Amino acid sequence: MSNASHGALGFLHKSHIVAEPGYNRWRVPPASIAIHLCIGSVYAWSVFNPALTREMGVVASSADDWSLSSVVWIFSVAIVFLGLAAAFAGKWLEEVGPRMVGVVAAILWGGGFIIGSLGISSHQLWLVYLGYGVLGGCGLGLGYVSPVSTLIRWFPDRRGMATGMAIMGFGGGAMIAAPVKGWLLSLYAKAPEFLGAQDAVATVVEGGRVFAETAAGRVEVVIASAAQAADFGAQAGVYVVGTGATGAAQTFMTLGIVYFVVMILAAFQYRVPAKDWKPAGWTPKPVASGMVSHNNVHIDQALKTPQFWQMWIMLCFNVTAGIGVIGVAKTMMSEIFGSVMPLVVTAAFASTYVLMISVFNMVGRFFWASASDYIGRKATYMCFFVLGTALYLSIPYFASAVATNPAMIYLIGFYAATMIIFSMYGGGFATIPAYLADMFGTMHVGGIHGRLLTAWSTAGVLGPLAITSLRQMSVTRAIQDLASKVDPAAFAEMFGAPLTQLDQLVAAKTVTIAKLMEIAPEGTIDPTPSLYNTTMYCMAALLVVAFFANLLMKPVKEHHHHDEPELQAVPGE
Questions:
Q1: What is the architecture of the domain spanning 22-190+245-276?
Q2: CB 557 within 8 Å of CB 431
Q3: Is the pTM of this model over 0.85?
Q4: Which letter does DSSP use for residue 204 in this model?
């Protein structure tokens, strides 16, 4: 790639985009923000969850529809490849420059959506993983590092502010993407073929699936409630599987094209400063006190220090706790409060919740990073872990309390707790580069930061894995508990099969907690709001471990330092 300047792609190489004297450096931040807003839409992934889990049934999940746990993993794969691409792109970025990296990011991110669209329309889950997860994830990583590195070079005098703008754009991407995705889904959605009201259509259950006899023969159907059908402007009743559209495939295609165009235009706005350029009248100021190092540690040597791995654990566990919740935020809000407060927690309310996650994620990046300049990085992370542990432990309380007493105060408490958690999630990303610079010096902080982002990749697996597997355990336990309380005759009448076939009916998504609650004895408490309690306890435990990793943080020992003179204007990578 380093020879690209001599080939067909030479016009993208950094040697061809050196800014002329007098170039206004403030032209670069808008392009950087545009790219980060595009790739930051990954945080609004949960908007797609309902559509992708009923792609065949459309109004309700059918037996062949993808499960929530399998869909959430797409988000995980994208985050894994984001971290890996960011970790390995630093050196290549230095060779070819930000424009070429930005163009490749646009091709991968936009193209990933397009391939994902083909996977959804053909109902091939592996194609969605390949497109959005692998290729899109690599586009995320490349798009993430290119503007940050460029802005550091243009704003050595305001490094925190400049990179904060771009990283804030990444955190705020979902603020734009969430409503746009929701609008596109509704625009392209099409209700499936309606056969009639449930009591007017003869159905039979075979192998856990529901079938109906029509003039054209037997067809598989789903039975939608009034709330499920309302999303499509339809009525409760029996619908034919495979005849409608959620709009997900068309939404993916539209977004892929739009993101590609915006990111290409932004990448072509990149310029790099001339060698030895620095802002007029600026001279580097020596850094001071506390745990801020005056020495530099080489990128390879940094990996041999306990401080690097302590920070790796801190970032990994802080992100694991937050990212698992972000991936299923809309679903979690609907499940905890939707069944007990249906008039308040509507689909629109849940979508707004996703939007507010993005707002607090974005604002937290500025707030906590700025606060760390005054109280120190170590104290800032202490806030993350102490306050975060308390907030994660409060969520099961709100969920359990609202199940027995659907009061608004519990919804407000849950909302406030999760918003503070998401602000600290974003704040962790914004504060860690400064923490690294404090510990290892500024010369190699870019490369060290790239290596540290493998913690983000790991968290991208751990978070969703924990939240989905623990939730599924809770669902299974709740269904078995409810099934033991219902009348076997009522069960057989409702589901067309005996209670002994419970596992088969659950596997085919015919039996759900909501449907069992319809025939449960009066006074039975709906277990749905408590499905995430175990998960929250585990997330709190992770933050306790991270707390001790930060508590034990000490300055890097002298034998890790090296004598190479510090490059005052810009970090190494």
A1: Up-down Bundle (1.20)
A2: no
A3: no
A4: E
